[in-house]
Amino acid sequence: MTEHAPSTAPAAAALAGGHRRGVLAPAVTAAPVQGSAAAVRDAALAVPLPRLHVLLTRQDVDLARLGNQVVVVVDALVGTSTIVHALAHGAAAVWPARDAEHARAIATRLHAPVVAGEWAGMAIDGLAPATPAALVAAMPRGADVVLATTNGTVALATLGGLGAVGGVGASGAATAVYALAPANVAATAAHLLHAHHDADVLVVCAGSAGRVNLEDACCAGLLVARLQAAASHAPSDAALLAAAAAASPDLLATFRAARTGRALQAVGLDDEVVLAARIDTCDVVAALRAGRVFAVAP
Question: Can you tell me the distance from the alpha carbon of 16 to that of 13, in angstroms, rounded to the nearest whole number?
Answer without folding.
Answer: 5
